[in-house]
Amino acid sequence: MLRTTIDLHVNPAEETIRVGQLAVRFLLTAEDSMGSIAAFELTVPGAGRLTGPAHSHDHYEETIYGLGGVMTWTVDGKPIDVGSGQALCIPRGTVHRFDNNGSQDAKSLCVITPAALGPEYFREVAEVSKAAR
Prior knowledge:
With 133 residues, the chain is mainly beta. It is 14% helix and 40% strand. The relative contact order is 0.25.
C-alpha cells in the first residue's frame, strides 16, 4: 500500500473570512486530509441570513453540526432547526440555505466530503460581495 506523508498539525487556518455578516474559519482543508474532508466553522449573527439564493452541491455532501445558538437550514423547502449538539447531513444535489432566525449568534461546524471546497472559494465570494456593495 502506497502511503503519502502529510504534515500533521492543528487548526491550519486561523484566518477568519468575512462574507457579509457571515464568518468562516477553516479547520481542515483538502491539503490537510489528502482531499477526503474539509471542515470549517460558520458563525451567523442573530437575525443573520445567507444573502445568496438557495443552492446545491453536486460534488460533495455537507454535514452540519450545531456548536451554539440555532440555525434554520431549509432543505428541499423544509425548514430544519439545528441547535447545539445536533447534526444534519445534506446529500449531494439537495437544494438548501440557512438563516439565523434567533437573536443570539449561531455557530456550526460544516464538514464537506470529499473536500471539494476550500478557503479560496470563500475569499473569492467575499471579494465579489465587497465589490457589489
